[in-house]
Amino acid sequence: MSRRWLYKVVVLKPQFLGLKPETIESTLASLGQQGWELVSATHLGMNVHLYLKKEA
After folding, report:
1. Which of 44, 48, 56 is nearest to 28 (CA)?
2. Would you call 24 exposed, middle or buried from its count of C-beta atoms within 10 A (0-12, 13-18, 19+)?
3. pLDDT tens column, 21-49
4. What is the DSSP string of 2-22?
5. Are 36 and 8 in contact (CB under 8 A)?
6. Computed from CA positions of residues 29, 35, 37, 9, in that sequence, does the dihedral angle turn out positive or negative?
7. Which of 27, 35, 33 is nearest to 7 (CA)?
8. Beta strand extents in 13-46 (DSSP E only)
9. Which of 5, 9, 21, 54 has the fewest CB neighbours in a 10 Å radius?
10. Whole-structure pTM over 0.90, yes or no?
11. How many CB atoms lie within 10 A of CB 18?
């Protein structure tokens, strides 16, 4: 049987002083604890888009 996946896109928007690496790290750590795995990340304009998946 083939695996089934759930997908999630998270958009991180910068605050007053921009987007800090610590913000990205804490977001990824929290999502990782929920079983999400980072597949890709893109920087679009001022925002960072995180693309994640986990097994259904």
Report:
1. 48
2. middle
3. 999 999 999 999 999 999 999 999 999 99
4. ---EEEEEEEE--BTTB--HH
5. yes
6. negative
7. 35
8. 37-44
9. 21
10. no
11. 8
